[in-house]
Structures are given as structure tokens and as C-alpha cells.
């Protein structure tokens, strides 16, 4: 049987733990066929990002159109988009092709603090992509850059969700992985009417590289299979918890989260 398809519009991580590599292995783990529009090639390892080169915007557009016109896209997500020019090209293309539910992970920097976005690009994400998004999935650093809200507790997490929804996405997931001093990891999902707290254990681990990408692609895979946003996010949260719990050391720095536990079922 032909599986459902999900498109990732994102950069390559030479270390294999984040970016399109994380997305494709997550799609695979969900039984979804992964499609790719590559936006940038990064040079990175467990210690950080040494540099990146972006793909020309017209080539990003051409990749999206090629797969959408021939294979069909059941859901799509963005990760590293690198430049304002690429973001504008993606936004324009999404008005011309059908990609189903659209998840925007507003990746601004790596967890080591290295920038993955040129300076003028954050505003383009806010104005060009958020209004087209079914769901946006910022972490707390991205929330601060996008809204100025410093999330330190449940009240400020809710205020951040309200501020982010003003940019026009249908849903927002404010991820709480970087909240300080909490025994649990609480992600807040909202469409402005419902406020759903997704609570899970906080694992003691250094190996969280690719966690945000893996969560967003797990959600995208479930959306591609027809789940509602709350169901897709709840399933994604369960999936990422297990991936964080089973993250492994690789290299001298931060190791990747792991979806390999899925193979235990086979
Ligand atoms: N130490 C941890 N233990 C369990 N879950 C975690 C841990 N760190 C992050 N998560 C979860 O992983 C997902 C990614 O979260 P977060 O770290 O906030 O975003 P990002 O990876 O984009 O920086 C969220 O669902 C978050 O709750
Ligand atoms: C190519 C590429 N895309 C995204 C990232 C971000 O990954 P990471 O630093 O691990 O942050 P989260 O995925 O956990 O949000 C990257 N480093 N490279």
C-alpha cells in the first residue's frame, strides 16, 4: 500500500541528528514517506555549527513544486530556512501548491547558540509563514526572539502563546524543554480558545540534539495520517519523550535524541 507523504523544507545536518536527517528518520518511524526540499547545507557536529551555505531560493521552490505536483503532499513542515529570500519563496510557493496541514518550527539557532538564520529572516518567518501555518512550534529562546516574552512559569507560557497567536497561525505549541528548575517538561498547546498542557517527565540527559525537529516531524507525520492537531501533538509528545530518554552520546559534545526504539517493535 502506498504510504502517506510528508514534506520537510529544511537544512541538512552533517552530524545526522537534526535537520532533514532527523525529519526523515522520524517520518520513517511513523510509516510515512518523507519528501525533501533542502534549504541549506550545514557543516556541523556534536560541538556546534561551523558554517552553512544556503540553496538558491528558486531551487527550493522547484523542489517543493516537483514533489507536490507529482507525488502529492499530505502534510508539510519547515525547519532551518536560512534566509528571508528562501522564506518568501516558500510562502509564495505554498499559495500555488497543496501541501495539507503546515507546521512551522521557527528554527533560529542551534542548541549550541550558533545562528541558523540570517539576521533579517526572523521577521519574514513572522509575517510570511506564521499566517499560513496550521501550527507553530517555538522553543523558549525562539519565543523570546519572536515576542520578547521571557517564559519562566505557566502564566508567562500562556502569555507567550497568546502573543504568538497574534501572528496568525491556527495553533501554537510553546515547548517547555528549556524551562529552568522544573521536574517536568510542560508544552502548552493553544488555538486561543483551548489551552492544553502536555506534561511529561524531564529526563536527565545531555543528548537532546534534534529534539525540536523530531517533535515537529512526528506531529507532521501524524497530521499526514489524518490526526487532529491536539491528537497529533499528544502523540508527538509521547514520541519525543521516548526519543529523549533513549538519546545517545556521539562525539565529544551533545548527542542526538533517538527514534531507534521504534525498531524494537519489529
Ligand atoms: N530533558 C528532557 N526530558 C524530556 N523531554 C524533554 C527534555 N528536553 C526537551 N524535552 C521535550 O522535547 C521537546 C523539544 O523541546 P525543547 O527542548 O523545548 O525544544 P527545542 O529542541 O526546539 O529546543 C518538547 O516536547 C520538550 O518537552
Ligand atoms: C540543519 C539543522 N536544522 C536544525 C537544527 C536545530 O537542531 P538543534 O540545535 O538540536 O535544536 P533542536 O532540534 O533541538 O531544536 C540544526 N542544528 N541543524
Describe it.
Keywords: ATP-binding, Kinase, Nucleotide-binding, Thiamine biosynthesis, Transferase. The chain is an alpha/beta fold. Helices cover 36% and strands 21% of the residues. The chain contains eight helices and nine strands. Strand 4, helix 3 and strand 5 form a beta-alpha-beta unit. The longest helix is centred in the C-terminal third of the chain and has 17 residues. The structure holds adenosine-5'-diphosphate (ADP) and ligand LCLJCK34.
Structural class: alpha/beta
Total of DSSP H or I helical runs spanning 4+ residues: 8
End-to-end C-alpha gap: 18 Å
Give a count of the beta strands, DSSP E runs of length 2 or more: 9
Rg over alpha carbons: 17 Å
What's the CATH architecture name?
3-Layer(aba) Sandwich
Could you report the average pLDDT, rounded to the nearest whole number? 96
Give me the oligomer status: single chain
CATH superfamily: Ribokinase
> Tell me about the biggest sheet?
9 strands, mixed
| Net shape | globular
Unique bound compounds: adenosine-5'-diphosphate, the ligand Cc1ncc(COP(=O)(O)OP(=O)(O)O)c(N)n1
Whole-number total of structural domains: 1
What share of residues is helical?
Answer: 25-40%
- Low-pLDDT stretches are none
Q: Strands of the biggest beta sheet: in what spatial order?
A: 3-2-1-4-5-6-7-8-9
Give the topology string: H per helix, E per strand: EHEEHEHEHEHHEEEHH
Residues in β-strands, percent = 15-25%
